[in-house]
Amino acid sequence: QVQLVESGGGLVQTGGSLRLSCAASGRIFSSYVMGWFRQGPGKEREFVAAITWSDGFTTYADSVKGRFTISRDNAENTVYLQMNSLKPEDTAVYYCAVKRDVAVKYPYWGQGTQVTVSS
Questions:
Q1: How far apart are CA 77 and CA 24, in angstroms?
Q2: Quick one: which of 38, 78, 33, 27 has its CA closest to 51?
Q3: Element (H or E) spanning 76, and its range?
Q4: Contact predicate 48/81, CB 8 Å
Q5: How distant, in Å, are the alpha carbons of 75, 104, 119 from that of 37?
Q6: The dihedral formed by the CA atoms of 112, 19, 29 and 25, expressed in degrees to the nearest 10
Q7: Which residues contact 80 (CB under 8 A, 6 or more apart)?
């Protein structure tokens, strides 16, 4: 069982930056993949970025490439999402999630943190 707690959301103006954190507790295996997802108002939940726990390999949605950076601190069991050049369309509830690298679905999710970008 893994517990995830996100923090760092808030209100920011267009072009601003925020850093989200996701603290994980429980059994964290080196084969895990940590992901960030978001769900905007009236939209489906979508993938944002992911990082492998073992070697830090990263993947990003096209919509955030070059603006967002995912990273991890294995010693602190924490994953970060640095978000720069924020746009109003980035407004969403951001969730972190974790899965085994061979799994398709993410079984463990945090409660989410709200990010609002004003124009």
A1: 5
A2: 33
A3: none
A4: yes
A5: 23, 14, 22
A6: -60
A7: 19, 20, 21, 22, 70, 71, 72, 73
Q: Beta-carbon neighbour count of residue 21 at 10 Å?
A: 17
Q: Tens of pLDDT along 22-52?
A: 999 988 788 899 999 999 999 999 999 999 9
The residue whose two tokens read 């899965």 is 99
Q: In what order do the strands lie in the sheet with 2-7?
A: 2-7, 18-26, 78-83, 68-73
**What does the alpha-carbon distance between residue 16 and residue 32 come to, in Å, rounded to a whole number?**
31
pLDDT of 109: 97
